[in-house]
Specification:
elongated; alpha+beta; Nucleoside Triphosphate Pyrophosphohydrolase; about 15% helix; about 170 residues; four-stranded mixed beta sheet
């Protein structure tokens, strides 16, 4: 028995700006063939920007799919050919308005492996500095960065004020 699935056929049903939705006919490791719906999504970086050891910066962001404002860790998708560290630096500049002098990779996780191949790579960013020039935000972003104490963020999690899974997981990595 094979340890991996074999793709028999691939059909893209949607290609968007960020991800593709496909229906793949696959032969599973036990030999059966089935159709699998999958979201193909580039890797992303999740930032834990820390202006000092006891505080982390979250961004308040409007999320159209759930029509809510959420406090989240800053994050972003890797551009084609971009390395995760470069993406983390770029996203910190764009979303927080600061440049990190130090990056520490904390781990990588698949948030929804039942239907997506996206991998989220978590970084702690420290020694934050003002950039030489401001960065432009993406046209679909409405962001408000704010530093919180770790105690405040953990209390927000307990009260259900943080509803974003990547943020909940990221805080546990500190």
């Amino acid at each position: 028995m094979s340890q991996h699935a074999a793709i028999v056929s691939h059909r893209a049903v949607h290609r968007g700006r960020i991800f593709e939705v496909a229906v793949d006919r696959v032969r599973l490791p036990h030999g059966r063939e089935v159709d699998m719906e999958v979201v193909r999504h580039p890797a992303s970086v999740i930032l834990l920007p820390m202006p000092d050891p006891g505080r982390v910066i979250l961004v308040r962001q409007y999320r159209y799919p759930i029509d809510r404002w959420l406090w989240e860790l800053p994050a972003g998708t890797l551009d084609p050919g971009e390395d995760p560290e470069g993406a983390a630096r770029r996203e910190c500049h764009e979303e927080v308005g600061l440049e990190p002098m130090r990056l520490e990779r904390l781990g990588a996780f698949f948030p929804t492996p039942g239907y997506s191949d996206e991998e989220m790579i978590f970084f702690r960013l420290t020694e934050l500095r003002e950039p030489a020039a401001a960065a432009a935000q993406d046209e679909d972003e409405v962001l408000e960065p704010r530093a919180f104490s770790l105690e405040e963020v953990r209390a927000m999690l307990r009260r259900g004020e943080i509803a974003d899974m990547k943020t909940a997981l990221g805080i546990t990595l500190l």
